[in-house]
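Narrative summary of target 7.
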Amino acid sequence: MSMGDNLRFNKKLNGKAYQRYDNYDAIEVPATDAIPSDYDGVMGVPVSFLDKYNPDQFQIVGNSDDGEMMAAIGVRPLGHQFIRAYRARGGTGHYSPGMRMLGLLEPQARVIFKRILIRRRTRPAKGTTK
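Modeled conformation, tokenized:
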């Protein structure tokens, strides 16, 4: 489904917009059935995506558990502001500034459980072949 359809009909999104990570230019997709069909940027998806992975459709950009890979693709380290917001909302995890993990600030600061970062492969123009 498109982003708009997912926002309207997917219960995991509850009509809320896709969230953007605080330290990387990508959207958070909470479940594989919420992957938008019309978004061409990078998306963080649950590991269960690998069960349905089609290499002709998606390129795997990274794995959030691999710190070196996160640095190589441009994930910025968590900053002091993020950690302060995380602690202020009651977060007790072992996170500190400088760690390369995906973080969300809305609706509250939180570090995201393991994600696979993907990008849709370029679609051929209508009437052409690969």
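The chain has a mean pLDDT of 89.
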